[in-house]
Amino acid sequence: MVQDVQLIFCTCPDMASAERLAAILVGERLAACVSIVPGLISVYQWQGRTTRDTEVMLVIKTTTARVAELSA
Q1: Virtual CA dihedral for 52, 8, 24, 41, nearest 10 degrees?
Q2: Alpha helices, DSSP H only, in 1-72?
Q3: Which of 8, 11, 28, 36 could in theory staple to 60 by disulfide, Cβ–Cβ 3.0 to 4.6 A?
Q4: Residue 34 near residue 22, CB atoms below 8 Å
Q5: Cα–Cα dist 3/36, whole Å
Q6: Would you give the DSSP letter of residue 10?
Q7: Which sign, positive or negative, has the C-alpha torsion 53, 56, 57, 63?
Q8: Cα(30)–Cα(61) distance, integer angstroms
Q9: The whole model's pTM is what?
Q10: pLDDT, tens digit, for every residue of 2-23?
């Protein structure tokens, strides 16, 4: 049976939390694979100021059927 594949992008504040989240998602079979991409720099508005932070991006590979449960 062929299932729709979804890519979910998520950022984490540091590598330790990215690795924990990736292990949980794969361990609970909410994701088939999670790629961890370090070195991301995010620039965004926060409380009326432009803010710049380093983050770690997760690229989460899952199926359409798992997106709601994964998001929860």
Answers
A1: -20
A2: 15-27, 67-71
A3: 8
A4: yes
A5: 23
A6: E
A7: negative
A8: 9
A9: 0.86
A10: 679 899 999 999 999 999 999 9
